[in-house]
Each structure stands twice: as structure tokens, then as C-alpha cells.
Design a protein that fits this description.
This protein is of the alpha+beta class. The chain has eleven helices and 14 strands. A hairpin with a 2-residue loop joins strand 12 and strand 13.
């Protein structure tokens, strides 16, 4: 099947579904105690680490000060706040108890891109009436760009497509098996935010005055294009295509600076990078305090055309935000090009699976192709994609800006 955007990239056919009913998943909960030790450990990472003191992703364990500034931004996110107030006002009191948490609730950091191994807070969209569910989705839509919201909804629909494709786990692999939580009191002045969590989708959106932090954010899909009644639904194509185009633009003469391995097949990688759950990702659930040494080619050493290619790739991820927030974040990243690294693992032909990472002091982006979890491909493939975006040095969940806000306004 030719890529819908006409890039000439050809998708391999989907494999057959994996063996039916082999994972202890019932009604969107994963019973980790029924798994073997290794997958149980990997898939419960978010739950095991969310109460640890927060530091943030750093190069050496110590966050750098001064990377994020709390500014007086004129445009306030009133549309999102209004949508959130409408959503909360429509909930019954018992629903608001679990669907609206304090701004400092630890559940901000409790998430997984797999299936939760705990009973989550927040309202599960599937359990809401149609009107309440639409009001919840309206909060997300009002917070993101049109492209960002489309990506989220496509990933949700492809989750349902996966359930129908394999004919299994159909109380879990559905369009609305996601928990939505509002944190704080929606306001155009005071901090507040929301979390959407479930299979392949973990989004954390924080508003601090007129500023917005959209990190950590995880978007994934298996498969990345729909079939049957989901024909025409696609997700993460730009992340794949634009990343591949940038890699090809770097040429061969400097590959030794950024290509860490020419393949991401399990036999070609160290065991810690070959697992089926995290793959090559380092910044997933439970890794809020990751110490990550910068690796890869330095962005400031690239030619102007190559730097433009990097900017195109950054815009794919930052384009999930409304324009003013995306441009603000892009300018922040461009201010650190001399400290921004790009690395690659895998091939660069039209079919090979790959991984790439952009590591800046103020932004971490990861893209990875995975083997099948519910589909039966034993090696990573283009039709299973995971992406992660984080704000290193303590600004995941907006924590750096929140600390500045509370200090400036003498909040307890």
C-alpha cells in the first residue's frame, strides 16, 4: 500500500494477529501479578516510581537553573479553561471526586503507555455519556492545534481498529478506553491542567498563566493506518517521514557521529535496547528522573540546509501545540543548538525500522518502531510507532514554571 501522503514510502503488509488471549488484560486493566517477572517489572514502572521525589531528566542528576522563564504572556488560554469548566459542570458530584484532582496531586506522574496495572483516577471516556464525553474531548481540542487534536483522535481510533483487527481484548482495545483527569481549577490566571492516559496515549497539558507545557507526551499506534471501517485513518506518518528525510539529508560522511547502530533487530542490539516493551526508548513511564548523557551529532555543526531539516522535524512534534506556544518552544530549542544532539539507530531505506532522538536541554524527542505486541511481527516494523516528548531539567508536568509561579505569587 502506498503511503497516503504520496512520499513513495511503501508500507509492508500487516502480520497476522498474535496468539489470542495470552495477556492477562480485562476491562482495560493489566494484572501484572499474572505475568512473568520481566514483563511484570517493565510494565509496572510508572506505578513503581511515581511517588519518588521529582528531579527531571538531566545529564548528570542535577537540573540546570535558568532554562525556563515564567513570562507575562498576553494571550491567556481562556478557550481551554472555558471548555474544562463546562466539562466539570456536567459531571455528577461523585464523578468530579475522581475526575478532578488538586493541582499538586501525585497522579500527574502516574501513567503508562501500555495498560495500567492499577485502578486509575480520572473518568474513563468509555464510561461517560455521549454528551459528557464530547465535553471532555472539547477540552483537549481547545488546548491543542488542529493537527495535534487530529493526531490524538486518530490514535484513539486506531486503538479500536487494533481490537477489531485481532478480534480480541475488545473490552480494552477500544476508541474511548482512556482516562481523562482535570487538575486544579480551570482558569486563565491560576495554574491548571489535564491528563489523558491509556494505551498508546499519555498526554500532560499544563497551563501556567499564558504559558503551556505539553510534556510528557506519548503518542503511539499499532498499526499506524486503519482498515475496515477505519480505512483512511492514519497516525504518526509525519513523524516517520520527516525523521527519515532528515536522516537522509545528513549524508554518509558524518554517520560515525550519529548512527549508533545500522539495525534495530533484537540480535543487533544490546539486551537493554531489544526488549518488546520499551524498545529503544529511554524516557518512558517511570523515567521522570532519568540521567541521560547527550549522544549524537551536534545540531550547530550542521549545514544551514540540514539545520532547516531539523527544524522541520521539530515542527512536527511542536506542531501539536497551538501556534503561539509551538513557536515559543521552537525559539527556545533553537537557542540551544550548540547543545542539541541527534542520533539514529536502524536503516534508512523505504522499509527498515528505526529509532531517533533529539536531545536538547529544553526538549527531548524520541521516535521508535516496535515489534508486535498484539500483532505477531517478532521484529520492529514501521507500522508500530511510539513517540515521546519531554521537557528536561525539571519542566515535565510544568513543574519548573509552576515553582516559579508559586514563588512569585507567594502561594503555599
Amino acid at each position: 500500500m502506498t503511503h497516503p501522503r504520496g512520499s513513495g514510502v511503501t508500507r509492508p503488509p500487516f502480520p497476522v494477529p498474535a496468539a489470542r488471549g495470552t495477556l492477562p488484560i480485562v476491562d482495560s486493566l493489566l494484572f501484572a501479578d499474572l505475568l512473568p517477572e520481566v514483563p511484570a517489572h517493565e510494565l509496572s514502572a510508572g506505578f513503581r516510581h511515581y511517588l519518588e521525589p521529582f528531579v527531571g531528566i538531566t545529564e548528570d542528576g542535577t537540573p540546570r537553573p535558568g532554562l525556563y522563564q515564567l513570562d507575562q504572556v498576553e494571550v491567556r488560554p481562556s478557550r481551554a479553561a472555558d471548555a474544562a469548566r463546562r466539562y466539570l459542570s456536567g459531571l455528577a458530584p461523585y464523578q468530579r471526586v475522581v475526575g478532578a484532582l488538586p493541582m499538586d496531586a501525585p497522579e500527574w506522574r502516574l501513567w503508562t503507555n501500555a495498560i495500567p496495572t492499577w485502578i486509575p483516577k480520572g473518568m474513563r471516556l468509555e464510561r461517560l455519556g455521549a454528551a459528557d464525553r464530547e465535553r471532555a474531548l472539547a477540552v483537549i481540542e481547545a488546548s491543542l492545534s488542529s493537527a495535534g487534536y487530529t493526531s490524538v483522535r486518530s490514535a484513539m481510533r486506531l486503538n479500536a481498529n487494533l481490537g477489531e483487527l485481532i478480534g480480541d481484548y475488545q473490552d480494552t482495545l477500544t476508541e474511548f478506553a482512556y482516562w481523562f483527569t482535570v487538575f486544579g481549577e480551570p482558569s486563565s490566571v491560576e495554574p491548571w491542567g489535564w491528563q489523558l492516559m491509556g494505551h498508546h496515549i499519555d498526554l500532560h497539558c499544563v497551563f501556567v498563566g499564558g504559558q503551556m507545557v505539553f510534556a510528557p507526551s506519548f503518542l503511539g499506534a499499532e498499526p499506524t493506518s486503519g482498515s475496515g471501517r477505519f480505512e483512511g485513518v492514519a497516525a504518526l506518518d509525519e513523524e516517520t517521514e520527516t525523521g527519515l528525510a532528515f536522516r537522509r539529508a545528513l549524508g554518509a560522511e558524518r554517520e560515525h557521529e550519529f548512527v549508533l547502530s545500522a539495525s534495530i533487530r533484537a540480535a543487533d542490539l544490546p539486551p537493554e535496547l531489544a526488549g518488546p516493551w520499551n524498545g529503544r526508548h529511554v524516557g518512558g513511564a517511570g523515567r521522570d528522573n532519568l540521567v541521560l548523557r547527550p549522544e549524537g551529532i551536534v545540531a550547530s555543526s550542521l549545514s544551514r540546509d540540514q539545520q532547516d531539516g531539523l527544524v522541520d522535524l521539530l515542527r512536527v512534534y511542536l506542531g501539536r501545540l497551538p501556534e503561539q506556544h509551538a513557536e515559543r518552544k521552537l525559539a527556545q530549542v533553537l537557542g540551544h543548538l550548540d547543545e542539541t544532539r541527534f542520533l539514529w539507530r536502524g536503516g534508512q531505506d523505504d522499509e527498515s525500522a528505526f529509532y531517533y532522538r533529539i536531545h536538547s536541554p529544553v526538549l527531548l524527542v524520541e521516535y521508535d518502531n516496535h515489534p508486535g505486541v498484539f500483532l505477531a511481527n517478532p521484529e520492529p516494523a514501521r507500522f508500530h510507532v511510539h513517540t515521546i516528548v519531554r521537557e528536561p531539567h525539571g519542566n515535565d508536568y510544568g513543574k519548573n514554571l509552576l515553582a516559579q509561579h508559586y514563588a512569585a505569587h507567594h502561594h503555599a
